[in-house]
């Protein structure tokens, strides 16, 4: 099966908590990698998201260690949607 990884940046205006983490993450911009697999349906090609990874800490934060943490793509998008509500 053909796979690809795409990268985007999520901006959180307020601190947030990732599922399964005790520590609250500060507001900021975070790189997110999406793993996708190719779906072949006749003459059309489509990609299905099968995983997501958020890079910690936020962009521009100096830290002794960096992590790439798996997170449910739907949960991540729901957190960002909630963050953008007035």
TrEMBL record:
<protein>
    <submittedName>
        <fullName>Uncharacterized protein</fullName>
    </submittedName>
</protein>
């Amino acid at each position: 099966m053909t796979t690809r990884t795409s990268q985007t940046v999520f901006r959180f205006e307020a601190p947030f908590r990732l599922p399964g983490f005790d520590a609250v993450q500060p507001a900021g911009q975070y790189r997110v990698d999406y793993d996708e697999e190719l779906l072949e349906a006749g003459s059309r090609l489509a990609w299905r998201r099968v995983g997501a990874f958020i890079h910690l800490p936020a962009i521009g934060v100096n830290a002794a260690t960096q992590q790439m943490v798996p997170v449910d793509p739907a949960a991540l998008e729901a957190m960002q949607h909630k963050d953008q509500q007035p």
